[in-house]
Design a protein that fits this description.
With about 260 residues, the protein is an alpha/beta fold. The chain is about 30% helix and about 25% strand. Strands 6-7-8-3-9-10 form a 6-stranded mixed sheet, sandwiched between helices. Strands 2-1-4-5 form a 4-stranded antiparallel sheet, covered by helices on one side. Strands 11-12 form a two-stranded antiparallel sheet. Helix 4 crosses helix 5. The N and C termini lie far apart (about 45 Å).
Amino acid sequence: MTALCLDGVSLRRGGRLVLDNVSAVFAPGRLTAVIGPNGAGKSSLLEVAAGLLAPTSGGVRLGEMPLIGMRRADLARRRAYLPQRVAVDWPISVERVVALGLLPQLPAFGGLPAALLPAIDRALAECDLLDLRARSATTLSGGELARVMLARAFVGDPELLIVDEPTADLDPRHAIDAATRLRARADAGCAVVMAIHDLDLALRVADDVVAIRAGRLHATGPVAAVMTEPRLAALYDVRARIIGEGRDAVIRFGN
């Protein structure tokens, strides 16, 4: 397993500087929460980290290998990326959508290879989707589709897993379950990077935090060092109170 490193990354989109000299390390066996207010640049940071956007300056490395120098197929086998908003426009089955996470191994035509079915079964079970495997993905609710996409990210057993707001459309039970599954992936050695607005869940499952504001690195380090009342208040421009301790703590904003 190998760390993903961002070295002084800056990014311009549409002429606007959306990331400004951001450096961060996403380590194997660690779950890193990327937090910050709306428009901070979290999604752009994840897209650069996933190798989907080339930074304007700075670089991204997986170990000592620059992402820009990796073959796309090799990167796809080692990294899974789940964007914030997803849609399925074709009436294909849930099983087939999950199988798309194995795209580098799938044949262009025909059915699913028997050798890949155990991995697909595990991913479906992991995300509570076995009863939905034959359903058309276009008939799913937003929460069901979010779980399908999480299963698609899991199915290839990547060493690097980058997910953008994976709990946003989920009910409380499935949000906690998804966060717990991501925690388990990190415990198994995967480097997990998760942008998230649910700070209570971040406190519960994350090891490290990268906090950004207006495209700049606000703070980075272990959860206990970054998610403090003064840092959170400065990050979100509102008074923050942390009630409780450790993974049972909750955060309240406002007076």
